[in-house]
Design goal:
Layout: H1 8-58, E1 65-68, H2 69-74, E2 98-105, E3 109-110, E4 113-114, E5 118-126, E6 129-130, E7 133-134
Antiparallel strand pairs: 1-2, 2-5, 3-4, 6-7
Amino acid sequence: MNKKGFTLVELLAIIAILAIIISISVTAFSNTQQSIVEKQYQNIVNDILIKAQDYAHKNGFTKNITISVNDLIDKGILLPNDDGYIVSPIDQTIMNCFIIEVTYTKGEKVNGITGPSTYEAHILSEKNMVDGKCEN
């Protein structure tokens, strides 16, 4: 007798194999998505730090300064979203209250020639916004 079709065991084996493939795919997709979100966050932070350094350089500061992300937005240096915020893609927190410290280093004098001064920025504190205002 010539049977056409699959037996119950064969169907169960195919379903099990598909379940394993789907499980692996979902895990890989989830990890990739998380990696992309973390990279987006790091890009936002790098943009804030670079623009804070640029602000200090263009204004000729010769001392260390602290500046908030809100101040950089108010001065037109950073562009917020339509609601006026810089938002973390990781947890959707508003980053406007982050405080940035820009450190000034005077150029060294070598053979009578002064090298370039440098500015280096880092996040000093990650204050939260509550009811539209920065926490103290």
